[in-house]
Amino acid sequence: MDHKYLAFAIPLFLVFMFLEYFVSRQKKMQLFDLHRSIANVSIGILERLTDILTVALLYGVYDYLQKNFGIFNIKPTLAMWILLFLGTDFVWYWYHRLAHEMNILWAVHVVHHQSEDFNYTVSARITLLQSIVRTGFWCVLPILGFPATMIAVMLLIHGLYPFFVHTQVIGRLGILEYFMVTPSHHRVHHACNDQYLDKNYGDVLIIWDKIFGTFQKEDEKPVYGLTHQLRTYSFLWQHFHYPIEIILMMRSERTLKGKLKVLFGSPMLMDPEMRDKAERIFGVKQQPQPLQQRLNVYVIWQVIAMLFALFGFIYYEVDFGASERFLFTGLTILTLINCGAIMEQKKWIFAVEFLRMLVVASALWLYNADYQIVTFFIVAVLTLMALFYRTIQQRYLSVVYQD
Ligand SMILES: [Zn+2]
Ligand SMILES: [Zn+2]
Predict the structure, then answer these.
(1) Ligand 2 center–CA 401 separation, angstroms
(2) Where do the Fatty acid hydroxylase domain residues begin and end (predicted)?
(3) CA 14 to CA 170: how far, in whole Å?
(4) How far is the CA of 390 from the centre of ligand 2 (A)?
(5) Least confident range of 111-115, 250-254, 315-319, 373-377
(6) Neighbour count for residue 243 (Cβ, 10 Å)
(7) Distance between CA atoms of 138 and 39, rounded to whole angstroms?
């Protein structure tokens, strides 16, 4: 399946992020924090990449379900397109509502809500697991009989629309406020003010919230993020803190019933102590100190390079084999961990740099016909690295972290 055009979502989203940045500066609104924006975009980079790698698989699942279990044989008529649109949006509402009401699903969705900013970069905070859970919910559609080709088109629209509601520079939108999910409605959804909690789950239409009693109008100024803020730039911790908290909480329950109640229970009932416990076990510190200029530049360049590489990878993805995909994904994950760890001032990032070099070396070795030269080069570099490990490490750390 050719999905080259999906690569253009990256420049499109970036253009809007920059536009929002300039508009917010003109309006003298402080909407962007550099580090938080980098953390947001980092999460989005991995999601785009893994999404592309799994799109064919998900398409296959829908196709299989429709051909083998489809109740009706639905044809793409106008009425059916409208029905599919309503169906997709309705399923989304329930997926999203349950994602907020059950710990096991919240563990996946929480990543979307960790940012204390609210701007277009926040819309990038989606993870592969979240897409998989969503796909599970949408399996209802092929079972009803909607063909995979129709669903793929619909999900593309559903994937693009929510991006545009993650902004503070757009006020109320008049008549649209009655039936569409607008930036104002979604600001409420991302806020942690008491009256805004667990409201406005809709994706494109707000009517489901109005029908099922979860609608809330924006009146007081929203405060964004979680009720118990995470305050970390760590790429890994943002993804794994909540599953760890659930495991800790389950371990503290003696009965199976108690454990299941944690797993499927409401995030509201989570013991806040679990976060502190998890942070102690994994040595995570909240709110690191502000970073130096030079450090920012290193992180920023890595993210820019990743965005360019990702564009190229998605554009040429069909031509790549399994090993190229594997290496590229490995390099991406290591780079994102590296950027997050630098923002957290971790000392172990040097080891990550080393792993990255190994990935690059394996790529050179795999794709270069002249094995002798490449092998010699790799061995020489590795030997030098081993001999002068301490010196290189110290030099590297002193460049990245100027104390
Ligand atoms: Zn949500
Ligand atoms: Zn959102």
Answers:
(1) 34
(2) 81-214
(3) 17
(4) 45
(5) 373-377
(6) 16
(7) 29
